[in-house]
Design a protein that fits this description.
By secondary structure, the chain is of the alpha/beta class. It has 14 helices and 7 strands.
Length: 407
């Protein structure tokens, strides 16, 4: 994941850095060192209202039968296995069993699941068969070694901190637990998987300037809830959408529309930005393919020129700074291909500004989820987003819970 740009600019542009996913393998000089176990909460004893710690597994509604392939937990598959998304709907009527006794070296058949069958294993550990940990004498994934420039002692310490972080917040079972605040967190700040770029990398779009603290307070949510949500989303990304092999990388699009110097003085933005950057860079390194900073204001270009010499050449090559207009549209079409969302094209600026000011249908939200998969298109309501939300709804149903309303 790529947050290198924000590691560099975090002291000067902390509000901007609040929602970009950085690549800590190339961490910049100004990266603030905070223990991963302290990043998620200012007060570790504070409990987040929207999460439960009871481990469980996904269960689909009887009216919908879904395709899955088992991965994760103690029975993680070690061959060229892929995982079907949670909304690959298949013809109704079939009945098959899940082989829960298969060894880690056996091929596991794609299995159809319904509400009366054994649920799937949704426990995902810190390592997998493709991350280099199996071949490493200390069991360290390659990404952590690269993060520390192959300094084995530092990489080992970082990975041990990461394991402790996963244990403290029960990250291995995040996807097996109900997430009532999914819709709310999506509304608090627009972020979505738009699809895949021409190279097959997942495209993540984020709009940090629209982080809405008033909505957060109105819905009794906290920064901790939003940080937990991001962990849920990233775990879903790398364990369900793109589980490997090889380990996936991502194209990040950071839409700077609406960012201002006033936000840079906002302590809530700055505080959230620092915590987010440290949490992601410490625990999800080496996931970047390209970072596109779009609709960048003139002052951002000036700041980047100051910090650019401090970045490695390999890091610079991953970062593209663009200003709104036809050249930006051309670049986006080149980098994103068929996954270019309409709301990122300059021609839609007028409509986008109206949405920023008034929200969708006057709700104050950037977009509303759709109810029909046939309506999906690259953008906030992409197929990936639809499937991810349905996955979340299925988990809520399993626990006899419902999605929290957004007010």
């Amino acid at each position: 994941m790529n947050l290198t740009l924000y590691s560099s600019l975090i002291m000067a542009v902390a509000a901007v850095g609040s929602l970009s996913i950085i690549d800590s393998t190339l961490a910049a000089p100004f990266h603030t060192q905070i223990s991963p176990s302290l990043v998620l909460r200012h007060n570790p004893s504070e409990k987040s209202s929207g999460w439960k710690s009871t481990p469980s597994f996904i269960q689909t509604k009887s009216s919908r039968k879904l395709l899955f392939q088992i991965r994760g937990g103690s029975d993680a598959v070690k061959d060229d296995t892929t995982v079907a998304t949670a909304a690959e709907i298949i013809e109704d009527g079939a009945s098959v069993d899940i082989n829960t006794d298969a060894s880690a070296d056996d091929d596991i058949e794609i299995t159809e699941v319904n509400a009366t069958q054994t649920p799937l294993n949704l426990t995902f550990p810190a390592t997998n068969a493709y991350d280099g940990s199996d071949a490493d004498p200390d069991g360290i994934p390659t990404r952590f070694l690269l993060m520390k420039k192959n300094n084995r002692e530092e990489a080992k310490a970082s990975f041990e901190e990461h394991l402790q972080w996963r244990k403290e917040f029960k990250v291995d079972t995040f996807l097996a637990r109900p997430h009532r605040m999914f819709d709310l967190c999506k509304a608090l700040v627009p972020h979505y998987f738009a699809g895949r770029d021409p190279h097959g990398n997942i495209v993540l779009v984020q709009r940090p300037a629209m982080l809405d603290f008033e909505m957060m307070r109105r819905n009794n949510a906290t920064i901790d809830d939003l940080l937990l949500h991001y962990i849920w989303v990233i775990e879903y990304c790398w364990n369900i959408i793109d589980p490997s092999p090889p380990e996936g990388i991502m194209t990040n699009v950071l839409d700077m529309s609406g960012i201002s110097f006033r936000q840079m003085k906002n302590q809530e933005y700055i505080g959230f930005g620092k915590r987010f950057v440290n949490m992601m860079s410490s625990n999800y390194p080496g996931r970047s393919y390209k970072t596109l900073v779009i609709n960048a204001p003139t002052w951002f270009h000036a700041l980047y020129k100051i910090f650019k010499p401090m970045l490695r050449e390999s890091t610079r090559q991953k970062i593209v700074i663009l200003k709104a207009g036809s050249q930006q549209d051309t670049a986006l079409k080149f980098y994103l291909g068929d996954s270019l969302p309409k709301d990122l094209i300059s021609d839609s600026e007028k409509d986008k500004k109206d949405v920023e000011e008034n929200g969708v249908d006057g709700t104050g939200r950037y977009f509303l989820p759709i109810g029909d998969r046939d309506q999906c298109e690259p953008g906030p309501n992409s197929l990936m987003e639809y499937d991810m939300r349905q996955f979340c709804i299925d988990q809520l149903a399993l626990h006899n819970e419902t999605m929290q309303d957004v007010i």
